[in-house]
Amino acid sequence: MSLPENDNITEDDVARYLKSHSGFFLKRDDLLLDLKLTDPNGGSGNAVSLLERQVSLLRERNMDIRGRLNGLLDNARNNDLLFDKTKQLVLGLIEAQGLDTIVNTFTRSLISDFEIEFSSLTLFGNPDFHRTLSSRMVPVDSAYQQIPRLLKNNKANCGVLTPEELQFLFSDQADHIGSAAVVPLTHGHALGIIAIGSRDPDYFRSSMGTIFLSYIGEVLNRVLPRYLNS
User: Which residue among 25, 38, 52, 158 is buried most deeply as judged by most CB within 10 Å?
Assistant: First the structure.
């Protein structure tokens, strides 16, 4: 690449030329000695050499890369902790004997281990068959009438829910919840729905991942039917 042969050479032309001729200054020590750059941190009256500016840029990039690396390490540590908590919950659900034990194990883990502000586990079935159950049980037809949007796709939902949906899931705590994550429980047929909530309207967003919550839902899908069917 060569520079245009006229007087209309732009800064972009010079930049492209120098990029394609990286060895331009190797035999032009006089130019290197004369080059002075304005110090971006020292005002217009201060100048730094090209080498000093390069060192400064490399230092800034190094700090940026270190910050990103620290962010990745923090995420990895958080995921490890989340995995351990999820594993303990899964083992507790598998070992649970009886529907009440499953419900209590799930609720206790969300509160003490995951530190969830609000949580609910609603099961579908005949309430007359489970009068002593600590979790709420409603007829499945009633659930589809009141929260059809949350159940129709059998997929996790995150974000701001309608007042009717919040009331169905969280009852008297509904007014305190700004956003929620919801996972329907289905294994052959609808079993129930789990929900966790936050006061922060932006905490649970539609773009966030739900892999751990969905995984817990899949475990519940395997352990609940034997007790609900009975």
Answer: 158
